[in-house]
Write a structure and sequence with these properties.
Chain lengths: ~110, ~110
């Protein structure tokens, strides 16, 4: 059974640029959630996708957007990058939206200069 | 809405000593509770979870936690720690009918020889 994978591992961007992060769900999981973990903090919920639709959103601006594909993989897009967007971005997959045992990927470390 | 407070940001202990990492939560609805561990430069791994039933929950690597509804606590314990337990530990909560995990800020457990 393949776990959750994320790409790239590390990424460096400059302020104002756009970035796309990718996530492949654990086999059989149909729900993907994205979290932002700033240095020294716990992860914060960005949004969740279920059956290719956004199924809830945390306190993040619209320049954070996402997609889920028919194979349940997912993308996180961030436009107009700001310095404070520097963080570890974690993807988590689960079987359903309500039963909350989420399995996390290793994350993508984004640095905005 | 839910919130989580991890009462200690850092806990240093000696190898083979017992340890308790404290977690308190706030919620107006029934909750599920989780402990995750994060090793350096890695994603989150689920240690244990409380969904319902027995308030004493056993997890991986010899960890256990007790759900105390009256004190709104979910403290993590291990009777004898190893050097390899050195990591960041996160307590998380979700409502039983919502989809997002709310994390505490984490407790860095450092096990010294």
């Amino acid at each position: 059974e393949t776990g959750v994978t994320q790409s790239p591992t590390h990424l460096i961007k400059t302020r104002g640029q756009q970035v796309t992060l990718r996530c492949s769900s654990q086999s059989g999981h149909n729900t993907v959630s994205w979290y932002q973990q700033a240095l020294g903090q716990g992860p914060q919920f960005i949004f969740q996708y279920y059956r290719e639709e956004e199924n809830g959103r945390g306190n993040f601006p619209p320049r954070f957007s996402g997609l889920q594909f028919p194979n349940y993989s997912s993308e996180l897009n961030v436009n107009a990058l700001e310095l404070d967007d520097s963080a570890l971005y974690l993807c988590a997959s689960s079987l359903e939206t309500v039963y909350n045992e989420q399995f996390f990927g290793p994350g993508t470390r984004l640095t905005v200069l | 809405a839910q919130s989580v407070t991890q009462l200690d940001s850092q806990v240093p202990v000696f190898e083979e000593a017992p340890v308790e990492l404290r977690c308190n939560y706030s919620s107006s609805v029934s909750v599920y509770l989780f402990w995750y561990v994060q090793y350096p430069n890695q994603g989150l791994q689920l240690l244990l979870k409380y969904l319902s039933g027995s308030t004493l929950v056993k997890g991986i690597n010899g960890f256990e936690a007790e759900f105390n509804k009256s004190q709104t606590s979910f403290h993590l314990r291990k009777p004898s720690v190893h050097i390899s337990d050195t990591a960041e530990y996160f307590c998380a909560v979700s409502g039983v009918s919502n989809y997002k995990l709310t994390f505490g800020k984490g407790t860095l457990l450092t096990v010294n020889p």
